[in-house]
Every structure is written in C-alpha cells, then in structure tokens.
C-alpha cells in the first residue's frame, strides 16, 4: 500500500534552488530549440564562444544554411556585427539528450542567434 507524505514547502524551495544553481553553473545549457530548413536547430539569446573557424556576411535567416553547406561546420552564431555576420564553428559536443549542448551560454541580447546542425 502506498502512502502520501507531504513535503514541507521550505524543503521544496531549497531543493528547487539547488537544482537551479546546479544547472546555472554547468557548461550544459538547456534551450528551447526551433528547427529550420535542413538539419538546423536555432534559438535566440545564446552564444557558443570560441571555436570559430570562419565568418561570412549573412542575414540571420541564412546563417544556419551557411553552416550546413560547410561540411566541417557543427554550430554557428549570428550577430549584427558588420551589418550581419555568421560565425561558423567546429567541435560542438552535444549530449545524448536532445535539447542540451555543451559550451552554450545564454545572453541578454535577443538579437544574437545561435544554433547547430543536429545530424553532425
């Protein structure tokens, strides 16, 4: 027979705060990813710092397809630098759980777009 015991609200708050703190300080970040044409997943307000191997002038809408067209590109970031720059990157390590990607940081700037090619 199962019994239900109530957990005090204070305990729930402490556990919730601990979990949020743990996720905030890991290099695995969760984002809600949108899917685009091809095998592109993208989101706003995020960055993958470093690992750039090239950059091209581009609109934000075309940045993911620019990455997908380059066989060594695994992920990308688009900024409005120089009227729109797509930063092509290599070496993304995705976890086995779909919405997580290592090295991702969130930014307060929703004009920055980041994404990855999900079959690479």
Fold blueprint:
Blueprint: H1 9-24, E1 28-30, E2 34-35, E3 40-44, E4 46-47, E5 52-57, H2 60-69, E6 75-79, E7 85-89, E8 100-102, E9 105-106, E10 113-117
Antiparallel strand pairs: 1-8, 2-3, 3-10, 4-9, 5-7, 6-7, 6-10
Account of the protein in words:
This protein is α+β, with helices and mostly antiparallel strands. It has one domain: 3-Layer(bba) Sandwich (Hepatocyte Growth Factor), CATH 3.50.4. It has two helices and ten strands; from the N terminus they run αβββββαβββββ. The strands form three sheets. It has a six-stranded antiparallel β-sheet with strand order 2-3-10-6-7-5, with helices on one face. It has a two-stranded antiparallel ribbon with strand order 1-8. A two-stranded antiparallel sheet has the order 4-9. A hairpin with a 5-residue loop joins strand 6 and strand 7. The N terminus is likely disordered.
In short:
Keywords: Signal. This protein has 120 residues and is an alpha+beta fold.
Annotation, overall tally of beta strands: 10
Give the low-confidence spans: 1-7, 11-28
Radius of gyration, CA atoms, in whole angstroms? 18 Å
Any guess at the CATH architecture? Answer: 3-Layer(bba) Sandwich
Helix percent band: 10-25%
Roughly how many Å apart are the termini?
Answer: 49 Å
The proportion of strand residues reads 25-35%
CATH superfamily: Hepatocyte Growth Factor
Question: SSE order, as H and E?
Answer: HEEEEEHEEEEE
Task: Give the helix/strand class.
Answer: alpha+beta
- Largest sheet: spatial strand order: 2-3-10-6-7-5
Number of helices: 2
CATH fold annotation: Hepatocyte Growth Factor
Shape estimate: globular
Q: Residue-averaged pLDDT, rounded?
A: 78
Look at the structure and give the CATH class: Alpha Beta
Indicate how many domains the architecture comprises. 1
